[in-house]
Amino acid sequence: MKRTILFLQAVCVCLFSGCKETPASQSFDNVIQYVDPFIGTGFHGHTFPGPTRPFAMVQLSPDTHIMGWDASSGYHYDDNQIYAFSHTHLSGTGIGDLGDVAILPFSGGDSIKPIATFKKETEKASPGFYAVKLDNFGVNVELTTTERVGFHRYTYDNPADRRVMLDLGHILQPNWGHKLIGNEYLFVNDSTVEGTIKTQGWAHFHSVSYRITFSEAIETVYQYIDGTLRQDSLFLRLNTGEEDLKFHYKFPEKDHPLLVKVAISSVDTDGAEKNMEKELPGWDFNGILAESEKIWNKELNRIQIKSSDPKVLTNFYTALYHTMIAPYAYQDVDGRYLGMDKKVRHATPGYTNYSVFSLWDTFRGLHPLMTIIHPDQAAEWGDVLVQGYKEGTILPKWPLASSYTGCMVGYPAVSILADLVAKDLAKGDLNLWTEAGVQSSIYREDLAEKFKGTRELDLSTMHPYYKEKYGFVPADSVPESVSWGLEMAYYDWCISLIASKAGKEEIAKKYAVKGEYYKRYLDPETKMMRPVMGDGSFRTPFNPRYSSHMESDYTEGNAFQWSFFAPHDMDNFITAIGGKKELETRLDTLFTTSSQIDGEKASNDITGLIGQYAQGNEPSHHMAYLYNWTDSPWKGQEYLNYIMQEFYLPQPDGIIGNEDCGQMSAWYVLSAMGFYQVCPGIPVYTIGRPMVDYAKIPTKNGNFEIIVKNNSPENKYIKEIKLNGKKLDIPFFDHQALTREGELEITMSNTY
Questions:
Q1: Range with the lowest mean pLDDT among 1-5, 82-86, 175-179, 396-400?
Q2: Which of 74, 77, 243, 546 could disulfide-link 652, Cβ–Cβ 3.0 to 4.6 Å?
Q3: pLDDT at position 26, please?
């Protein structure tokens, strides 16, 4: 299908005039049957298989991996031992943390730290449920959760020896600087304990309070402090620093399961107690599990698809499941939460605080997806980011447990805010949103001083300082200069958009100019985005294949993977490089050149290579769609087909890189439906290669349906596109089409 393609910032509204404004009536399909939580737990996907609820604080899962990169979620599929079942985890990240409130049932042995072994065939996982047989201890473990409470059911082969370890020294990635700094513990009564764990790691300040209640009275308590069993009277209350605390609880002989409830709070033990009283006052394990399954099935029905290929069904609904793990609600049932200023705050009615925004990853696909299928939630997250600015004087950047990790490039929160503005989903004071963007886009000496000596110092690097002073980031002054320069240009364009909507035209014009700073890195000789030195010259010598993790001029990549990032200004970008034929030539080179990566310290994040295109990391995610700005969109359809067929597989190692809190999965969900938003902030989607045969997105104003005709593995090229019965001559359509009843019809062919 050949046609001239122009970049669209809007698409003619008349295309949608036939849409009816009628409420959507929805029945729920049984789609949780297609979800496999083990997908992504192998290779370096770094997901976890344990139960949680959508965007919930408790994420209960086995910890099988403690050290190194593959301990980021606490679990790796290749392992066959379990250290404990802990109640907080990160999904798909490249750095680990959390793993709080770790418990393990066991029988026999007198090891201070028992470690369970298991066989893979005894593991089961589905949304809201996990089960495994601890082989060496003879214990069947079943887990489910509410939003703030983990629920365990243990069935012992030996009813005369029923024990549970509470490991308050349990840490993920201690070899990466994660450490215990404090413990408070109270033996409340013979079936209840509570306390607070304080750790320091990726989150510089992390505190989790808990309340644990057993279904039976404890018969005997064994208390270990730094590996020493207390032989005299036990401490009913403990307040320690870095000492390793472990408790073994022995229960009377009984031949029925032992149940355990673990509630957590970011505030205090009173909060944990209230969370348990509100969410899980009883002991009906099967009832809570059924409730979790019902909740998950409803959420996953936000998109209903059909496919003749069972692999597509599994990949799609597992990916959609993974988009609903983070961010998670970080607030107690009484409305209290720990703010970014580390103060206990009370949420206003209707407000819910969230944590774990992997913004540099998720601004590209996850947040745009949520504006389509869950617009109220997307808008709520915008409020959370602005509230974070009010609490900490800067927009959150990879916020984790009320801490600024400062991780990754620039100030991506403004992308989420700009997209909400562009889609008329923004709530609140846009003057405040503009202020938040501006204050987050400059070097903040006050924050550099405040966070000195902590990991939060990464929030205030010198890159914005140089951008403001020179209009570019000198490569001989700071690392990752090109990536920061390119992304800050996009983020500044986002601020311009927000300011314009707020009526702040002076700010809007100023930041629109900064949005063109990406051009400073365009090198006409190499046709790459090339590092610029302090004297204004390009770096020489220059190797576009070179990567050195956190040390070179590019973040988690090289020049090939960063030379196509100007999503907000594609028309001018294409003109600057020599026209759409030159764009096509550059894309052809990207996808067909050798996949060799140079550098002894090359980033491990460069995975899923097609030529130098890297699907395993986010900077590449929009690139195949750029063929829609050329006269050969069929080339993009070929590559999208290959990516979805080869890099998304229904098996544990089926995700080609870190899943990154839903971004890798959101890319698949959108792409499998046949479209993607190249630039958050411009409410336009471009069409690729659909994998599903049919999709229905229920909206407040009716169902939007995607009908794919003649779809098959061979028919990977688009022959014709119709929107609401009218033929589209260009593969772009506006966001408003997805907000009401309508129909996108895509006819496929085996030729282009």
A1: 1-5
A2: 77
A3: 61
Q: How many CA atoms lie within 13 A of 136 on its CB side?
A: 13
Question: In whole angstroms, what is the distance from residue 52 CA to residue 429 CA?
Answer: 34
Look at phi and psi of residue 74 and say left if phi exceeds 0, alpha if psi is from -120 to 50, else beta.
left
pLDDT at position 18 is 34
Alpha carbon distance 597, 617 (integer Å): 14
Residue 98 carries which side chain, given as an amino acid letter? L
Rounded to two decimals, the pTM is 0.95
- Please state, as a whole number, how many other Cβ atoms lie within 10 Å of the Cβ of residue 702: 19
Instruction: For 183-241, write each residue's pLDDT tens digit.
Output: 999 999 999 999 999 999 999 999 999 999 999 999 999 999 999 998 776 778 999 99
**d(C-alpha 278, C-alpha 336), whole Å:** 14
Interacting residues of 575 by C-beta distance below 8 A, sequence separation 6+: none
Give the list of residues 6+ apart from residue 287 with CB closer than 8 angstroms, or none: none
Which string of DSSP letters, residue by residue, matches 695-714? EEEEETTEEEEEEEET--SS
**CA 715 distance to own-chain centroid:** 32
Concatenated DSSP letters for 530-581? --B-TTSPBPSS--TTB--TTTSSSTTS-HHHHTT--GGGHHHHHHHHT-HH
Among 495, 608, 599, which residue's Cα sits nearest to residue 554?
A: 599
> Where do the H-state alpha helices sit in 395-480?
413-422, 430-440, 445-450, 463-470
In the prediction, which pLDDT does 315 show? 98
In this structure, are residues 177 and 188 in contact, taking their beta carbons and an 8 Å threshold?
no
Q: What is the DSSP letter of 655?
A: B
**Cα(677)–Cα(300) distance, integer angstroms:** 21
Question: Rg of the chain over CA atoms, in angstroms?
Answer: 26
Nearest to 515, CA basis, from 527, 498, 532: 498
**Environment class of residue 729 by beta-carbon count within 10 Å: exposed (0-12), middle (13-18) or buried (19+)?**
exposed
Nearest 5°: the CA angle 65, 68, 73 is 50
Please, are residues 131 and 123 in contact by the beta-carbon 8 Å criterion?
A: yes
The chain-wide mean pLDDT, for the chain, equals 94
Query: CA-to-CA distance for 285 and 212, rounded, in angstroms?
Result: 16
Which pair of tokens denotes residue 162?
Answer: 């029923």
Among residues 196, 153, 138, the alpha carbon closest in space to that of 51 is found at 153
